[in-house]
Each structure stands twice: as structure tokens, then as C-alpha cells.
Amino acid sequence: MIVAKGITKRIGSKEILRGIDLHIKPGQFVTVLGPNGAGKTSLLKILSLLVNPTEGELLIGGQKVEDNLVELRKNIGVISHNSFLYDRLTAYENLKFYGEMYGVDNLKERAFEVIEEVGLQYAMSDPVGTFSRGMQQRLSIARSIIHNPKVLFLDEPYTGLDQHAIGILNNVLAQLNKNGRTIFMITHNYEQGLELSDRILIVYKGKITYQEETTSLGPARFKQIYLEQVGGGH
Hints:
It is built from eight helices and ten strands. The protein is of the alpha/beta class. The strands form two sheets. A six-stranded mixed β-sheet has the order 6-7-8-3-9-10, with helices on both faces. Strands 2-1-4-5 form a four-stranded antiparallel β-sheet, with helices on one face. It starts with a strand and ends with a helix.
């Protein structure tokens, strides 16, 4: 689904990413961990077509990004720290707004489908400003999949969530992955990453320093590996 070859990102004289090579299969759930400033978010922004790399080649679904940028963006959903939701609008009105922006067919039916996927059908007519942080995060996922993308990118989705909201979010992500979506998630919570994903990566100083299938790892073992990789990084 995603193939990155020699991805480098420089801002002025600072090298943020240093020759990233990555291959993500269709339907795979990949979790990325690393200390602050390691380059994780820069990598996500490049893979999700929000910014361009300084050097390197990126293919999504076998297509070169530079040749198919507009079309490929239709296959991508992004969830970041900002929910990009409008507090004064209802959940449905938010989804309608983004659905119209993407030109979604049968929009009303599709809005009800995605709101059910994230378990918020009971709040469809409520203003988003009345939602808890966990509810907003789930609606943000509904927003990001309204156009039925094949790949979903998440940057620290657990920020500000209590344990109950984390459990609900995990169920939503697991179901989305079960339904065939490829998921790329950045988090500091390695236990959630191990529980949900097929594969886990460590990014440190702009490079992928470790990657492994999660079936062969437990939390204690991964914590040891993480500390070995990043030392005192947080």
C-alpha cells in the first residue's frame, strides 16, 4: 500500500528525516514510537501527502505520488491533535460539511454509516461543543473516513483521553482495521500500540532504528528494546 524509498526531509540546515525506507502492506496496522523530536510527525505528514520530502520516492497503491497527487489524497484520512470539527455544528452537520468537500455520493446515508462505525449515532444531532474529548476524537475519525479512504493516519490519538475513552477508541480502530483499512499511528503509548498493531517501529534521530511484528513482542520486552534504542530520549 505504501512504499517509501530514501525519504529525507531537511528544513534549512537541519535534517529531520535521514533516508527512511518503509514498506507497508494493504490492511496492515503499523504503530510508530520514538522520543519527541525524532521525526515521527514529519514522516506521517510526508506519507499522508501533507508535505513533500526533500529527497526520496513515495508510492501509494503502486502509484507515484508526484504523478497522482490529487487522486491519491482521496484515499487518505488524517487525524491529528486538532479535531478540525466545528463546535457550533452538530455531528451530522460536521460530517455533511466534509462529505460535500470530498464530493461523497449518497452523503446522508454515508454520514449515518460512519457515525455508527464510531458508535456515536445517539449524538448525531448534538452540537460538537457539548462532546467530551473522547467523543470528539471518535467523531474526528468519522470525519476522516467519510470519503472511504484506504489509509488512515493518526498522530497521538490518545492525547487527553481517559481509560474508558481509550477502550472505546481501541475498539473503533480495531474494527476499522478488521474492515481492511491500512492504519499508520504515532503514539507514546507502546502498550496500546502492541495491543492493536501488526507491526511496530521505533524512529530515532530521523531514522527507523527498529521494526518488528508485534506477535513476537510483549510489553516488558518491547520496553527494554525501546530503552536500548533511544537511551534517555523521551
